[in-house]
Amino acid sequence: xxxxxxxxxxxxxxxxxxxxxxxxxxxxxGHAQRARSDPHRVQRSHHRHRPAKRSKPRSVGARxxxxxxxxxxxxxxxxxxxxxxFADDFxxxxxxxxxxxxxxxxxxxxxxxxxxxxxxxVSNGELVISSYRDPADGDKWATGGVxxxxxxxxxxxxxxxxxxxxxxxxxxxxxxxxPGDNSWPPEIDFSEDNGSNRQTDxxxxxxxxxxxxxxxxxxVNLTQWHTLGVExxxxxxxxxxxxxxxxxxxxxxxxxxxxxLDIQTQAWACDTSTxxxxxxxxxxxxxxxxxxxxxxxxxxx
Length: 301
What we know:
Strand 17 and strand 18 form a beta hairpin. It is built from no helices and 20 strands. It has a single domain, classed as Jelly Rolls. The protein has strands spanning about 5-10, 15-20, 80-90, 100, 115, 120-125, 125-135, 140-145, 145, 155, 155-165, 170-180, 185-190, 200-205, 210-220, 225-235, 235-240, 245-250, 260-265, 285-300. Strands 3, 5, 6, 7, 8, 11, 16, 17, 18 and 20 form a 10-stranded mixed β-sheet that branches. Strands 4, 9, 10, 12, 13, 14, 15 and 19 form an 8-stranded antiparallel β-sheet that branches. The protein has a two-stranded antiparallel ribbon with strand order 1-2. The protein is mainly β.
């Protein structure tokens, strides 16, 4: 996403800062950090998480029969050209620590935002990332995020995330692939917005030492349920919306290193970005991102 800078990971009381992505072509400043969990670490910079060559052991888990919040059931099993390696229907009441880690910390370049693990919850068959002014966080607009790094880090794959996002100026989202060793760039954002009117979705490939970006956008109402996805192959990215291809990127700059799946929201402080919006008088007191399910695949050949 366009607001990467530095980040922190938290497990128990261990905190570590790592490098994160940066701003879009239209954004000269306004980087942010992500916070994610990593065991047995103390605060330092540029921690490198242990990478995986492909996916970790299949992290699918038992599926429970229940009504689907989005009325579209989670895909099951392999599809043509792809082998299912990761799936979460969020049927329980807590986030599965074998699949997900949560963010924690201050977004770099964004004094108005804060990532708080308590703003991530599972209920009614959904992952919910809640954004609101939290007295426990100095009354800042606190948000949250999750990373699949405990359950899935792989090179190439197909990813599908079914979600909807409450309207709320100044609260933005990103669903992305991030290097498993925490190096940066590259970065593949296959769904993100700038916290404006929820009527446009963006996809951005970040690459190169100067953070070169290839960006596409599509008109879509993100307050309604949709399935956003990407098919990541050697030299090619295919962005999908509700099973239809809407943009393609090809070339040698497409990443070829192990990456994890991240899902996050963030609030922006005013006057810190020329692209991201900041909360205003119209922003609801609570702005939630709801995720019905997540599925990931590895290539079969």
